[in-house]
Design goal:
This protein is mostly helical and about 90 residues long. Helices cover about 75% and strands about 0% of the residues.
Length: about 90
């Protein structure tokens, strides 16, 4: 994906995050600790990709009934991808 497309996806996922927060579901602490949002267009493509995976993991965790449900498996996969992108960032 191009950086602009990642930022657009990041924006959509932040809208989902706001929905869950407004309905009392989740704190999204790992995402908030990153200190990046879609408006930070100066941040690297890799940082936005990492933020998307971290946010995706937290959204999927909220939606999961257990680790074997569809959202539960998605949460696990997003966690793996977040770790991989973090390693790309620190190189």
């Amino acid at each position: 994906m191009h950086k602009e497309e990642l930022i657009q996806l990041h924006t959509l996922m932040v809208q989902m995050k706001k929905f869950f927060e407004e309905n009392g579901a989740g704190e999204f602490s790992q995402y908030q600790n990153l200190g990046i949002s879609p408006i930070h267009v100066h941040r690297s493509k890799a940082e936005h990709k990492h933020a998307i995976f971290v946010l995706g993991k937290e959204i999927a965790t909220i939606m999961a009934h257990d680790e074997f449900s569809g959202p539960g498996r998605t949460s696990v996969r997003m966690h793996e991808l977040a770790n991989r992108t973090f390693n790309e960032i620190i190189k």
